[in-house]
Description:
The structure holds 2 protein chains of 2 kinds. Chain A is an all-alpha fold. Helices cover 76% and strands 2% of the residues of chain A.
Amino acid sequence: xxxxxxxxxxxxxxxxxxxxxxxxxxxxxxxxxxxxxxxxxxxxxxxxxxxxxxxxxxxxxxxxxxxxxxxxxxxxxxxxxxxxxxxxxxxxxxxxxxxxxxxxxxxxxxxxxxxxxxxxxxxxxxxxxxxxxxxxxxxxxxxxxxxxxxxxxxxxxxxxxxxxxxxxxxxxxxxxxxxxxxxxxxxxxxxxxxxxxxxxxxxxxxxxxxxxxxxxxxxxxxxxxxxxxxxxxxxxxxxxxxxxxxxxxxxxxxxxxxxxxxxxxxxxxxxxxxxxxxxxxxxxxxxxxxxxxxxxxxxxxxxxxxxxxxxxxxxxxxxxxxxxxxxxxxxxxxxxxxxxxxxxxxxxxxxxxxxxxxxxxxxxxxxxxxxxxxxxxxxxxxxxxxxxxxxxxxxxxxxxxxxxxxxxxxxxxxxxxxxxxxxxxxxxxxxxxxxxxxxxxxxxxxxxxxxxxxxxxxxxxxxxxxxxxxxxxxxxxxxxxxxxxxxxxxxxxxx
Amino acid sequence: xxxxxxxxxxxxxxxxxxxxxxxxxxxxxxxxxxxxxxxxxxxxxxxxxxxxxxxxxxxxxxxxxxxxxxxxxxxxxxxxxxxxxxxxxxxxxxxxxxxxxxxxxxxxxxxx
Lengths: 495, 112
């Protein structure tokens, strides 16, 4: 029992609720939000420390022991992801200070961001499958409000589609939970894992696992990504950045958790489905990324490609591939936030998102240009940046299990990703300078601090991969050996 | 009784799906809420209806009804209530701003 486990959920929740009462004091709101997210980050880091010392930390809510009550389980995977989510939120928050209009700031953008973080962290930390649904909803409801905030025509149109898709997938989530509960009679993930292992994963449970796959695939943008490009292009850049960095990743996390902890017995079947889904996702995402000529859509399709890549690592499920997948997931959260922020800065300076109307920005914006170049390289996985380590490990794992075609697809799509972001770089920074210094639509202020912070982290993550990998290794240990998770949550089973 | 409820849930699913596939925004929102009701009924039906006494210590009985599905349904009803309210407001705003509730017209132009 460790009360620390609940802090990454409680801090954003309480401060978010508090901010609803301070609607007009924008300065105060910003200060409180910054303090709350920093505190969340610190508590996640402390949590990582205590997990690496003493193993998985749990908290039985209200003193009800698992499997009867709801348990919060912080294993290394969850703690690493909460820490990364907090970092990303801080970065996007710093960018909102300058990039988002007064009207949005007055209409609860900060409390909504905090509640979003609460939902994301909750989804990472919960050890109960129905509670996972609840935290998904907390996250999604905040995201509906964040997308539609401002009420522009495009925003309203896209929110409707985004919301309908997500409500239907949430309903399917409940259907899947209902079936699973009627088969196994439990909701605690550890207990589910134990019971499925005991009874064997028969056809019925495998079918339910595919239903879960559809649900999480919809949330993660794995193959079922048709809703993603539209809705991620609607909100302002700072909010799109936080969506790209966090929302799909929660879906990936859920897939990782379900298919390493509970449904890992029929991997011949389920993991083959995962492999095919990830292959199609990568190919279709890369095609989308090179096909479009506006920054928003190119970046949105890049989100899809990386979802496919991480899930490929999960599907291979060897130690190496899983390590790569977790590492790449962390890298991708940071890299996507960075590139969406920088893309947002380019769009606000040029006043358009169409590449053919942007040119020669490097003349007055060298820092922005080089930061964008760096993040493009990081996305494509050029060493020594952090994308490289994850990609190498996933590909090595894949080749070791003789997924040659998949490895080829992975490499090819990384090339296409590089091409698509370089297209943005070349078009918008090279060439004749169209705008003179004073003509820019907006000063594009405030990107430097979050941009530099994220870029430094990407370089640090690449160079210091050795240190990070020891933590990632502990996360993978639990994924490979579900008994560790079960024993931490249900000590009485102790075998 | 379970069979009966399963059939009802099936009918609700069918009608909900039909409505969701239509073009009008109001129909879609109604379809979603019917779909939700179907899910809740199904959650109740697959986990068994009243099988014994209420799950209280005072009830001297050997068999108790499982309260968990009902707790889940209650949570889910609250969430779907909020979602329906939000989607109705959103649908109304969209109608006011864009002047249509036809999803075919909400597709979005490729070059805007």
